[in-house]
Amino acid sequence: MKLDGRRESTNVDDRRGGSTIAKAGGIGLGGIIIVGLITLLMGGDPTDVIRNVQEMGGAGTIQVDPNWQPSAEEEELATFAKQILAGTEDVWTRIFQQNGRTYEPPRLVLFSNAVQSGCGGATSSSGPFYCSADRCVYIDLSFFTSMKRTIGADGDFAYAYVIAHEVGHHVQNLLGTLGQAHQQMARSSQAQSNQISVRLELQADFYAGIWGYYDNKMFGSLEDGDIDEALNAASKIGDDYLQKKSQGYTIPESFNHGTSAQRHRWLKKGLTTGNLNLGDTFSPAYREL
User: Fold this and answer.
1) Tell me, what's the pLDDT at 246?
2) Domain boundaries, the chain
């Protein structure tokens, strides 16, 4: 991506340098990571991780090390994340204005190891997540290294897609889609709830694509290979791919983020059309997503 000279968002809360001390009788950070990986690879989402950790003893007390210093690589990623967030602010502000609305950007919380959000405590193993309770996007920048090492998804636009996807959930929150879906999920069976979750996730992928389309229109940000990086990342975080990687088989009824093909398709639709009207993932039959 071409980001030289791009502004950095100031809607950032930098909480890096945190460490977790386990509760007495609870599980340590290593155990928390294991719980998180198992939950996510089995198709769970960040709220599942938080709940599972709390049930097994909690994440403990989050403390900040005053002597902590970020590496040069992490500082580059922090600058990158702030620039991508600024890009989402510029794009979604314009889109909302064109539709007679006012865009209220989310706050980006950078953390390391563990964090306390409006949705509860979470650790790095939760992966990036959006909390509608405090309208914040949370990310431990080490996740980008994990993407490269564990699933082979690498590249700046792949990383940008991750941030834009979480901002997509914020857009859903502002439009009321997220709240309505969560209400439906609360009244549904587990299988039905999972399908609603898939619809939410695929729409967030589509919104990430919409951002990429208009960010390139506004700033000429995309370079050769960028779109392939993002589409590869979308394919590598499909429920079917992760389940096969972790256990060798899939459990389709447990999918709650979408298959690799679905995530690839909806991200690509946003990236190639830029047409917000094509992002309805709730009306089609589930099998047609």
Assistant:
1) 84
2) 12-288
